[in-house]
Each structure stands twice: as C-alpha cells, then as structure tokens.
Amino acid sequence: MTGEVLLEVRDLHVHFPTPDGLVKAVDGLSFEVRRGETFGIVGESGSGKSVTCLTALGLTNLKSAKVSGEILFKGSNLLTLDKEELRKVRGKELAMVFQDPFACLHPFYRVGDQIVEAIRCHEKTSSQAAKERAVEVLAAVGIPNPRDRFKDYPHQYSGGMRQRAMIAMAIVHNPDLLIADEPTTALDVTVQAQILELIERVKQDFNIGVILITHDLGVIADVAQAVMVMYAGRAMEIGPRDSLFAHPLHPYTWGLLESIPNISQKGARLVPIEGSPPSLIRVPPGCPFHPRCPHRFEPCDKEIPELIDRGGGHPEACHLTAEDKQRLWVQRHDRRHTMPAAS
Amino acid sequence: MTETFTAAQTEAGRHSVEPLLRAEALTKYFPITKGIIFQKEVAAVHAVEGVDFEIYPGETLGLVGESGCGKSTTARLITKLIPLTSGKIWFEGQDISKMSNRQVRPLRREMQMIFQDPYASLNPRKTVGSIIGTPFAIHKTEGDAKKRVQDLMDRVGMNPEHYNRYPHEFSGGQRQRIGVARALALRPKLIICDEPVSALDVSIQAQILNLLEDLQSEFQLTYLFISHDLGVVRHISDRIAVMYLGRIVELADAVELYDNPKHPYTASLLSAVPKGYESAGADLTHRITLTGDVPSPINPPSGCPFHPRCPKARMVAGSDTDVPENCKSEMPPFGQLETDHYAACWYPAGEGDDLQEAAHA
Amino acid sequence: MMQYVIRRALWSVVMLILVLALVFAIFFVLPGGSLHKAPGAKYPPIAYTLAGKHPTPPVVRSVVERLDLNKPIYVQFATYLGNALKGNLGYSYQTHEAVTKALIHRLPPTIGLAIGASIIWLLMGCGIGIISALKRRSLLDRSSMIFALAGLSLPTFWLGLVAVFFFDARLGIYDTGAYVGITHSPIGWLKVMWLPWLVLAFVSAAIYSRMVRGNMLDVAGEDYIRTARAKGLTERSVIRHELRSALTPVVTMYGLDLGILLGGAIVTEHIFNIPGIGAYSVDAIRDQNIPIVLGTTLVAAFFIIAANLVVDVVYAILDPRVTYS
Predict the structure, then answer these.
(1) Chains near A, with 3+ CB pairs < 8 A?
(2) What are phi and psi of B45, to 5 degrees?
(3) Which of A46, A261, B54, C185 has the smallest number of CB atoms closer than 10 Å to its CB?
(4) Strand B239-244 to B247-253 pairing
C-alpha cells in the first residue's frame, strides 16, 4: 500500500534566539514519510509540529532561526538548497495547506487568478491554458460552477470552499507530498468531514504522501496510517495507527487519550495530564514530559530517553521498560473503565 | 433545596420541579439597514428564531451547533446582554424579558458567564485578585474581599499567592480558571459557559471540564454549556439541544440524543465527528457527509431550514435533488417524539435509515 | 454604486449648508462676533465698523439697510444661501470685491501647491517606507527613522522660515514673495513653487514613510503572504502581493490629506507669500470679513467632503470586499 520514502527528517533542530532566551522549537526530531500514506503528526500547541513543516519549506518567519540536521526530500537535502532551488520545489513537488482558509487567500485577488499564479510560477504556459487548468482543479476539488467561481474573490467563498480552493492550489502541479497543517481546525464538523474526504481522495487519485498536522486525535485515528506524537519539540512515539491507538507506548500519549471526552459513550471522569506544557525556553532536563508524568522515576529528570524501536516498528522515547508499560497501560485502562460515570 | 437538585437528575423528578430558567419563543433578528439619511430595514439576520427550552436546577443543558447557528446569541439573550426581538424568559419563575437593565442587575448575581477566550475576556491591566474581586465590588457585598478571592482561587486550583499577578503571567488553562473563579464569586445559580474549553489544548481542556464538574456538585450549580465540540458536550451535559440556523432542531437526554438521534441534522453532525480509534468502523465511509455549507441566516431557506442539505428528505422524496413539499413549505413543529425527546422534523430518522447511502447518492 | 454616489452627493450638499450655518452662528452667537448684538446695542458691531472712522447714525443705518442687519439671523442666512446658489457669495466688507471672483482667482495657487507637495510626499513616503521595510534594520531603514522623527518634530512654520532664510537670504537661490502663475510662466511658477512644495511635503513624507513601512511589515506576517511563498512564487511576486495590501490604506489617507490641503495651506501660503485660499482666509478671519470667511470655509468644506467621497469610491474599487449599495 505504501511506497518509497518521500521525506526523511534526520535529527532536526530548529532554535530561535529571542530576547528571553533560546526557543528550542524542534529539538532532535527524526521521522520518515512514504508515498501513499497519510502521516499524522499530533501534539498540543507549541509542540513543534508546524515549525517542522515550515522549516522543510523554508518558510519559518524568523531569518535568525538556527537549523541543523537534515530534511531529505526525494533524496535531496532541503536545508542545503539555495533560495531559488527551494522555491522550485515549493508548491510544485512539495505543497502545503494551512489552517485558516479565511486568512490564507489574498483578499484583493480573484481566487482563480491566485491559482493561475501558482501554475505559472512553475510552468511556462499561456494565461489562457493556465486558466483552463485552474478551472479544472477547482472542479476536481468540488467547487460548483468552477468557471463562474473562478472570478470570485475569496470573501465570496464560504470557509469550506476556501479550503477546497487552497487544496486546488496545492495539487495543481501534482505534488509528491502534501502537507496539511490543521486543515480542518477552523471549519465546522460537517465541513471538516468533507475536507478530510477530499484530502483522502486526492491522496489516492494522485498517489502522493500526505502529512496531516493536527491536535485532534480523532481526526488522526480516522485518516492516518502512521502517527507521530510530539511534545516540546521532540517525538514521543511514532507508530502505525493501529499499533499506536491499540497499544500506545508513551505516558504522554496515554494522557492525551484519557483527556479526550468520548463521543460514543457517556464516559467516565476525564483524566487530565497535570500541569501545563513547558516553556520552550526552559525545557525540563531529561525527558521533557517528566514533570507531568505520573510514572517518572530515577533517570527521567536527567537522561533524555532516545527514540528506540524495540521491535514492532513502533519506536518510542521513554525510560520505562516494555513490561512496565504493558502493566501500567492495562492498569490505567482498567481504572478508567471501572470508574463511575461523571456527574 | 438540595433535594431538588438531585431530583432534577431523574426523569420523574424533572416535571415536578420548577425550571430555573425557561425560554419561550426566543427570537432575535439583527436588522440590516440601507439608506444614508433615512435608514430603512432591508433584511435581517435571523440569529435566533422561536427557541424554546427549559433549564432545571442542578442540571447541565448542552447547546451544540455549528458556527453561526445562534448558540452564543441565545446565551446573550438569556443573560439580557442584548435585547430580545420577541419571546419570553423566566428566571426562577420571574418574567425577565421585559425588565430594564436596572431591574436585571440584581439577577446578574444569579447568572454568570464564562467565555471562550480567556485571553480576551480578562482585563490585562488588572491583577488577578481585582479581576476575581470585581463582582464583590460591583454588588457591594460585605466581608473581607481578599480572603474570599483567595479562597476562590484555591478552590479553582490556583495558587492564592498569585493574587497580585497579571493575566499575561498565566497560561491559557490558568486564565480560564481565573474566568471560572470570577463567575463563581457571587455564588450564582446559573452559569452560562460559552465555549469554555474550545481555545485550550486537550490536556488542559480535561482539567477545566473536571473542575466544572466538581464545582457543580459542590455548589449545586446549573450550567448552560455551549460548544461546537460534540464530544465535550456529551461528556458534560445531562440534556442536549441541537441548534441549526437559529432554531433548536432537537432536544433530548444526552445519552438518548447520541444513541438515537431523530433529526437528520443531528445524525449527520454526530456521524461527521471523527470517532477515535476505539469505535468500530473508524473510517470515512461511515459518515453521512453533508453537501454544501450552512446557508446564510439572512435568507434562511423556507420551511425546514435544513431541507436543502437533508439526506433524509431526499431519501423520502426518492430523488437526488428534490425533497418533499412540506419540507420546503412548512416549518415542522417541535414535537415530542418519545418521552422527553423533542425534534422538529417531518420525517424523523428511524431504525434502518441508511442516511450515508442517501448522502453519498 | 451610482445610486450610492448620488445619495452621498446630496448628503454632501446638506453638510455644506450645515457648515455654513455653523460659521454664521459663530459670528452671531459669540460675544465679540461681528454679528453679535451686545445687550443694549442697537446694531451689531459690524454696522459701526463698516460705517467708517466716525460713524454717524444715518451712515450706520444705511449700512444696516444694505446688509440686512436688522433682519433676523435666519433671514440673513437664507438670503445668503439664495445668493450663493446663484453663484454670488457676497462682497468683501472692506474692498467690496466679489468673493466668488476672488476665490476663483485664489484657487489655482492653492491647488498647485497642494498637488505638487502631495505628489512629492507620496513618492518619498512610499519609496522610503517600502525600501526600509524590505531592508529592515539596514542603514537606510535607520536613517529613514531619523528622517521620520525629524519630520514629526519640525513644525512647518519653523521649517518654512528656516528654508526661506537659508535658500533666499543665504544662498540666494530662491526668491520669496514674487508669485508667478502657471499660465503666466510655467518655468517661473516652478521656480516659485519648489521650495514651498518641499517644506509642505516634508512632514507628510515622514508620516507616510512610517505608515508604509509599518503596513508592509504587518502584511508580511499575514497568512496569505505565507501561502504565496508556499506555492512557489518568486520573491518579486510576493512583494507585489505585499504592496497590494500595504498601499491600499495609503490611498485613503492620501485622499483625505489632499482634500484638507486643497482648502488652503495656511502657514505655507503665508510664509511664501502665495496668494491662495489659506492666506485669504486668515486675513478674512482677522478682519471679521464674514463673506470671505464663509466663502473660504465653503471651499475648504467642499474639498474635504469631495475627497471623502472620492476616497470611498476608490476604496471600493481597490478592495473587492467593500461594496456599497
């Protein structure tokens, strides 16, 4: 089902110097994304999920960012490309869709013209041919009357349609990898479902890879094949969806899963993770999650656990042994399901 | 007093108890005017249209719906923050819909609000202590305000020593605790929570939800809980009202509503939510994907407002494009379909309806 | 849209009448105003002023008759409006010159001054603003900051006097006080106008450059600029996207500023001896020469109201989100 490795991130660090100190937005991150798969990245705000992808595209806002490591896209390191080479990749082979479709289209230009522009900055075609192509992709993403809607301005589109237009713009050059950064967070649930279906269809029709960044574990469980859980700029665990949801290996993932109210049944009392996410300027030593982890022990506040695959293709970064994890997860699972219902 | 609170939780008890708040035919139009010198009304945003509901003491009534469905406007109407176009509101048996701002003021002690954005709803130039203490000052209550504020801070899980800090020194979750403490200060009976956890990360969201539950049982609070997140609403609510384009389309006990939705909109909404891995059939084909977007509340569709998107109506009509005549022409009554289960639909969903099929057709 | 413009235009007429009524009322109501009849006085002060150095009752009476001063204020105002509609704005109390004619005569210098100066500040302001935003924290950006501070802190009257002193008295390359009309000699006109243009433009150029720089930096942080980069646009095209958003508000500000200036640049006209509306109005106010005050006010209010209307229409063309109906 999945094909060759499209994107390989190796030991990526992205640090921003600020007057208050060094912000370690991404700190030693490695993962790979394959063709034909949806790679989900989950994490709370400030976990570094967006920064990672923006860095790959060379779009981090601050020029002062210190970046090290490698981001290999189809074999070539994006971090060593010069500006013009990177521009040629951007939008053509590697495309991105952002969170807020209300803010992501230029309010003064017609939607169609913005797509035409995307076509013509990578391809020498006549404006007429580009226009035809734009109408085609608008139709492909499900915009009704694309020839008329081509001439509309973004404010004449609804939120869902704007996100469709953004996706149209992203797929116009048949990219190899589509990065979708919280593509449905700003949309209503019924529209969210439409957009997720569209991304899934695009992935299958074009046989591309998709990175889906979200804070919503439900979305990830629905559409991703592989999942990476991030916390404070690091990967806590990376695994196939089934393995990750059935046997999560990291206490942070456990905490996340237990924090979410269940829509399918009136659940037990929620078990929140104590405390708040750390400041990225003062990331706790050792495992960044240890101050909030109920299972922390001796080495957790000193040694940074490495991301290790202990078999099963499901690497995780935690000092607990496999046996401990097994025992603790079952314990937590049981406790949660025997607790009296809330209220 | 305490007896009524527990009684309210049971089916039988609910009818013997006076509702804490009752809204009848609540309607709010925001006029759109035209003209420079002489303004005339050319249209109106039908923000809330004939909404009826009751909130019983001690319960949590959830109000769900998509953006622009009128749920926040409803909250602002019942707290008298904006004037009604028409309709009536009774609070503790007293008709407050005609009351002036002055007359309402004492009632504000009894009805407090918690807002979505803890960043925007706290004055950045005031200390936490004075923010939480403001209600005491406004309503001129007796006693040592500082001590009471610190007790409140302690109660909502904040360090009372942070009395003199400013909102920006706190994280989002802590700020929402400040908002909760402020709402709690005057020991209100009803707290209206308008998307109180939507801006928070999941791990923090769970902390606030637990806090709200604890406070409810400790202080016998009644909540109107507004959210677009169906998981959160189900978790916290006893009964749930679903809004669409300014109307309540379905109202039922939380478990009943989620297990047995009657209105096709509720069914679609529920099926659109990603179920998480633990649920069976966690993939996209089990969704009833609605086509199109929510229509504009300026010119809401005739008849049932949901009919242009309704998969059930198309199924009944046996057509991909058409819907039955009464859906288009007449607003269905908000009727009791089963015990305490109300829905406004001509063709409520029943057993064996394959709405996915209809929606995908 | 057309309907909107017509409605706005009608509304503007109402506004102009209100402005005139207000000025009329000021002279009538305020003690010391030349139409204000002090308690016990038979006629308002203007009647005595205009009757000459030694006013005799018959002369005063004839002045009162001629100017309708014994009629109620609203009758006087209505008479004025009626004449104004016929194009007659009255006659100067002192020189008996027709105000309409004088205004027509004094409009070209003011328009020339305003347009010339505004073009200079627009070009300078946008140029400096754009470059300093693109080359943020560069030497040029920092120098433009100093320029902006200077512009904001040096008032025009001071700058004008220093300029006259420097270029006229010291260097002798400018000749103050000999205004030449553009129709008379274009070269001569340019020779007279370049210095007042620069002086008048200086402050606004500073304000505009800061505004443009700020707008550019704000826009650069917008999500749609990130989208533009993400789809692979060249940096040139990205900058074009930024300019489109950053310069649109400048149009509004420019239109309003120009409208205000067309009503007369009082200080600059005064310093450089330019016989425009601004200088004319100052003299008239000093002399309580009501017909001229009303006339210049009418001109100034007209330009401000017209500029507002033009700006609104242009904005609707530039920003597709704005529609009037």
Answers:
(1) B, C
(2) -80, 115
(3) C185
(4) antiparallel
Shortest distance, CA B42 to any CA of chain C (angstroms):
11
Interface test with C, best of B32, B36, B38, B42 (most C CBs within 10 A): B36
- B265 touches B69 (CB < 8 A): no
Low pLDDT (below 50) residues in chain A: 341-343
Distance from CA of A280 to the nearest CA of B (A): 13
Are A48 and A233 in contact by the 8 Å Cβ rule? The answer is yes
* β-strands B222-227, B190-194 pairing: parallel
Side chain identity at C102, as an amino acid letter? A
The three state secondary structure string of C247-286 is HHHHHHHHHHHHHHHHCCCHHHHHHCCCCCHHHHHHHHHH
Q: How far is CA A119 from the centre of its chain?
A: 25
Q: Is the pLDDT of residue B1 over 70?
A: no
Partners of B60 in the beta sheet? B223
Residue range A146-162, pLDDT digits in tens: 999 999 999 999 888 99
Burial of residue C32 (number of CB atoms within 10 Å: 0-12, 13-18, 19+): exposed
Check if B222 contacts A (Cβ < 8 Å): no
Q: Helix axis angle, C156-163 relative to C186-220, nearest 10°? A: 140
ipTM: 0.88
Cβ pair C227:A100 closer than 8 A: no
B-contacting residues in C 4-63 (Cβ below 8 Å): 7-8, 11, 14
Nearest CA in chain A to B220: A343
Shortest Cα distance, chain A CAs vs residue C120, angstroms = 27
3-state DSSP assignment of residue B11: helix
Arithmetic mean of pLDDT, B122-138: 86
Cβ proximity of A134 and A112 under 8 Å = yes
Q: Which residues contact B195 (CB under 8 A, 6 or more apart)?
A: B72, B115, B116, B226, B227, B228
Q: Say whether B36 and C8 touch across the interface (CB within 8 A).
A: yes
CA distance C10 to chain B (A): 10
- Phi/psi class of residue B93: alpha, beta or left (left: φ > 0; alpha: ψ in -120 to 50)? left
Contact with chain A for residue C222, Cβ under 8 A = yes
Are the CB atoms for B178 and B131 separated by under 8 Å?
yes
User: Token pair for residue A147?
Assistant: 């020839």
Q: Does B236 touch chain A (CB under 8 A)?
A: yes
Under DSSP, the state recorded for C170 is: I
Q: What percent of chain B has pLDDT over 70?
A: 87
Instruction: For C245, name the nearest residue in chain A, comparing CA atoms only.
Output: A108
pTM: 0.85
Give the Cα separation of C303 and A287 in Å (integer).
Answer: 69
Q: Residue C75 and residue B59: Cα distance in Å, rounded?
A: 72
Considering only alpha carbons, which residue of chain A is nearest residue B173?
A: A276
Q: Identify all chain C residues contacting A105, using CB atoms and an 8 Å cutoff.
A: 224, 227
**Polymer length of chain C:** 325
Please tell me the distance from the alpha carbon of residue C195 to that of residue C277, in angstroms, as a whole number: 19
Indicate the DSSP class of residue A304: P
